[in-house]
Amino acid sequence: MSDSHHAPLPAVVELGYGAWLWLDERCAAFPAAARRQLGHRILDAALDALADTTEAAVLPRGQAREARLCAANRALTLLRILLRGARDRRYLSVGQHEHAMRLVDDWGRQVGGWLRAERRGRAAAQQRQGAPPREPGP
Protein backbone atom coordinates (compact mmCIF):
# COMPACT_ATOMS: atom_id res chain seq x y z
CA MET A 1 0.00 0.00 0.00
CA SER A 2 2.96 2.30 0.40
CA ASP A 3 3.16 4.95 -2.27
CA SER A 4 6.43 6.78 -2.96
CA HIS A 5 4.53 10.04 -3.56
CA HIS A 6 2.94 10.18 -0.11
CA ALA A 7 4.12 10.02 3.47
CA PRO A 8 4.12 6.48 4.84
CA LEU A 9 1.03 5.45 6.77
CA PRO A 10 1.20 4.16 10.34
CA ALA A 11 1.79 0.44 10.78
CA VAL A 12 -1.77 -0.04 12.06
CA VAL A 13 -3.14 1.18 8.70
CA GLU A 14 -0.78 -1.11 6.79
CA LEU A 15 -1.87 -4.01 9.02
CA GLY A 16 -5.52 -3.24 8.31
CA TYR A 17 -4.87 -3.00 4.59
CA GLY A 18 -3.17 -6.41 4.62
CA ALA A 19 -6.08 -7.92 6.56
CA TRP A 20 -8.59 -6.46 4.08
CA LEU A 21 -6.64 -7.87 1.11
CA TRP A 22 -6.53 -11.33 2.68
CA LEU A 23 -10.24 -11.23 3.52
CA ASP A 24 -11.11 -10.04 0.01
CA GLU A 25 -9.44 -13.13 -1.47
CA ARG A 26 -11.25 -15.46 0.93
CA CYS A 27 -14.67 -13.85 0.40
CA ALA A 28 -14.25 -14.12 -3.38
CA ALA A 29 -14.21 -17.90 -2.93
CA PHE A 30 -17.55 -18.00 -1.04
CA PRO A 31 -20.53 -19.51 -2.88
CA ALA A 32 -22.35 -16.84 -4.92
CA ALA A 33 -25.27 -16.32 -2.52
CA ALA A 34 -22.96 -16.15 0.51
CA ARG A 35 -20.58 -13.84 -1.33
CA ARG A 36 -23.43 -11.39 -2.05
CA GLN A 37 -24.62 -11.41 1.55
CA LEU A 38 -22.09 -12.44 4.18
CA GLY A 39 -19.03 -11.81 2.01
CA HIS A 40 -20.07 -8.23 1.32
CA ARG A 41 -20.82 -7.61 4.99
CA ILE A 42 -17.39 -8.96 5.99
CA LEU A 43 -15.66 -6.75 3.45
CA ASP A 44 -17.81 -3.73 4.40
CA ALA A 45 -16.85 -4.14 8.07
CA ALA A 46 -13.17 -4.50 7.15
CA LEU A 47 -13.32 -1.46 4.86
CA ASP A 48 -15.14 0.57 7.52
CA ALA A 49 -12.42 -0.28 10.05
CA LEU A 50 -9.72 0.52 7.49
CA ALA A 51 -11.33 3.84 6.56
CA ASP A 52 -11.74 4.83 10.22
CA THR A 53 -8.15 3.85 11.02
CA THR A 54 -6.82 5.74 7.99
CA GLU A 55 -8.87 8.83 8.83
CA ALA A 56 -7.62 8.73 12.43
CA ALA A 57 -4.06 8.66 11.08
CA VAL A 58 -4.51 11.98 9.28
CA LEU A 59 -6.57 13.79 11.93
CA PRO A 60 -4.89 15.91 14.59
CA ARG A 61 -4.97 14.69 18.18
CA GLY A 62 -8.32 15.22 19.79
CA GLN A 63 -11.86 14.00 20.10
CA ALA A 64 -12.36 13.59 16.34
CA ARG A 65 -9.43 11.15 16.19
CA GLU A 66 -10.73 9.30 19.25
CA ALA A 67 -14.16 9.03 17.62
CA ARG A 68 -12.61 7.46 14.49
CA LEU A 69 -10.66 4.97 16.61
CA CYS A 70 -13.83 4.05 18.54
CA ALA A 71 -15.64 3.55 15.23
CA ALA A 72 -12.80 1.32 14.02
CA ASN A 73 -13.12 -0.76 17.20
CA ARG A 74 -16.86 -1.18 16.60
CA ALA A 75 -16.27 -2.26 13.00
CA LEU A 76 -13.65 -4.78 14.13
CA THR A 77 -16.08 -6.22 16.70
CA LEU A 78 -18.68 -6.70 13.97
CA LEU A 79 -16.01 -8.22 11.72
CA ARG A 80 -15.15 -10.82 14.37
CA ILE A 81 -18.82 -11.86 14.62
CA LEU A 82 -19.22 -12.09 10.84
CA LEU A 83 -16.05 -14.17 10.53
CA ARG A 84 -17.37 -16.56 13.16
CA GLY A 85 -20.54 -16.92 11.08
CA ALA A 86 -18.47 -17.63 7.97
CA ARG A 87 -16.63 -20.37 9.85
CA ASP A 88 -19.86 -21.83 11.25
CA ARG A 89 -21.40 -21.88 7.77
CA ARG A 90 -18.17 -23.53 6.56
CA TYR A 91 -17.31 -20.77 4.08
CA LEU A 92 -14.00 -20.45 5.95
CA SER A 93 -12.03 -23.45 7.15
CA VAL A 94 -11.04 -23.58 10.81
CA GLY A 95 -7.46 -22.70 9.79
CA GLN A 96 -8.61 -19.76 7.66
CA HIS A 97 -10.81 -18.53 10.51
CA GLU A 98 -7.93 -18.76 12.98
CA HIS A 99 -5.68 -16.81 10.62
CA ALA A 100 -8.37 -14.18 10.04
CA MET A 101 -8.92 -13.80 13.78
CA ARG A 102 -5.17 -13.36 14.36
CA LEU A 103 -5.12 -10.59 11.72
CA VAL A 104 -8.18 -8.87 13.19
CA ASP A 105 -6.97 -9.29 16.79
CA ASP A 106 -3.56 -7.79 15.95
CA TRP A 107 -5.28 -4.91 14.19
CA GLY A 108 -7.65 -4.43 17.13
CA ARG A 109 -4.81 -4.45 19.67
CA GLN A 110 -3.03 -1.70 17.76
CA VAL A 111 -6.20 0.38 17.42
CA GLY A 112 -6.96 -0.12 21.13
CA GLY A 113 -3.44 0.83 22.16
CA TRP A 114 -3.59 3.94 20.01
CA LEU A 115 -6.96 4.88 21.52
CA ARG A 116 -5.62 4.46 25.07
CA ALA A 117 -2.60 6.62 24.21
CA GLU A 118 -4.89 9.32 22.77
CA ARG A 119 -7.01 9.32 25.92
CA ARG A 120 -3.94 9.50 28.18
CA GLY A 121 -2.61 12.41 26.11
CA ARG A 122 -5.92 14.25 26.37
CA ALA A 123 -6.12 13.68 30.13
CA ALA A 124 -2.53 14.93 30.57
CA ALA A 125 -3.27 18.05 28.49
CA GLN A 126 -6.38 18.74 30.54
CA GLN A 127 -4.41 18.42 33.78
CA ARG A 128 -1.79 20.85 32.49
CA GLN A 129 -4.58 23.31 31.74
CA GLY A 130 -6.13 22.80 35.17
CA ALA A 131 -9.31 21.15 33.92
CA PRO A 132 -10.53 18.02 35.69
CA PRO A 133 -9.97 14.88 33.56
CA ARG A 134 -13.05 13.62 31.77
CA GLU A 135 -14.17 10.03 32.05
CA PRO A 136 -13.18 8.03 28.95
CA GLY A 137 -15.92 7.31 26.43
CA PRO A 138 -16.93 3.91 25.09
Entry keywords:
single chain, 138 residues, mainly alpha, de novo design (two linked rop proteins), 4 helices, 77% helix
Can you give me a brief rundown of this structure?
The protein has 138 residues and is mostly helical. It has a single domain (11-128), classed as 23S rRNA-intervening sequence (de novo design (two linked rop proteins)).
Tell me what the structure shows:
With 138 residues, the protein is an all-alpha fold. It has one domain: de novo design (two linked rop proteins) (Up-down Bundle), CATH 1.20.1440.60. It is 77% helix and 0% strand. The model has no long low-confidence stretch (mean pLDDT 90).
Oligomeric state: single chain
**CATH top level assignment:** Mainly Alpha
Distance between the termini: 31 Å
Number of helices: 4
Helix content: over 70%
Bulk shape: elongated
Q: Write the CATH fold name.
A: de novo design (two linked rop proteins)
CATH architecture: Up-down Bundle
- Poorly predicted tracts of residues: none
The tally of domains stands at 1
Strand content: under 5%
- The CATH superfamily is 23S rRNA-intervening sequence
Radius of gyration: 17 Å
Task: Characterize the biggest β-sheet.
Answer: none
Please identify the structural class as seen in this structure.
mainly alpha
